[in-house]
Amino acid sequence: MTAVEGFSVSAGTIIGRTHAIRQTNRQDAHALAVAPGYAAGVLCDGCGEGAASEVGAMLAARYLAQEAARMLGEGGAAPADLPGALYPALVEYLGGLLDLQRLVSVDARQRFVRDYLLFTVVGFVLNRDAGVVFVAGDGLASIDGAVCRFDYDNRPPYPAYHLLAAGGASSGFETIAFDPAGLQDLGLASDGFDVELFGDLRGLVHPRAVQRKLNVWSDKERRFLDDATVIWVQRV
To answer: What is the pLDDT of residues 91-119, one digit of tens each?
Structure first.
């Protein structure tokens, strides 16, 4: 999809081989919101111990992408300001989902959070003037080939921890700012993706090319034991 002038945005996702063997759902989810003057993309990786953490991951990815687009478009917000606004908005959104369940006991509410609402977040926002990557938990970001790995040793600070008595959440997103004027490509991925593969995405222009590449890597090269999701932004 064509986004900010001079850039394209695409994404793909693949179920991990271990999930396929166990016949469990893919726990990754992603969403894009693209317009001529801005772009936003978010991927969420559900907690492996959650009974259906893909539910929260799908809802949150869509919510964050749409809310970021609203802030960038209708609200005219600067990219640098969005992570600070999106994090508490996400926690409030998750709290609303929890309240809709009308669960009375503390144990039932906390069980719902652990089963459905634990996921990591890796996202970006971009307009003509500025861009920023925002992260909560494990994930990968590549900016013009410089890779940053966010690794919490299987103890990520899930945003939904704010809804649990035990705590453990961070106070907000980690961020990396970048200048669109010099940007050639930006890659975001869940931690199931192989870092060295970012370079092989360069030059892919078809909207489905990233998904097709993931399919080849998985089917023919037997990669990705875990689910893998990629959002790819490049200058065109």
So the answer is: 999 999 999 999 999 999 999 999 999 99
Distance between CA atoms of residues 191 and 141, nearest Å: 10
CATH number at residue 231: 3.60.40.10
1 within some domain:
no
* Cα 20 to Cα 39: distance, rounded to the nearest angstrom: 32
Total number of domains constituting the chain: 1
19 in a structural domain? yes
Q: Which domain holds residue 197?
A: 7-235
The Cα 91–Cα 128 span in angstroms is 29
Predicted TM-score (pTM) above 0.85: yes
Distance of CA 171 to the CA centre of its chain: 18
Two structure tokens written together for 97: 């989902």
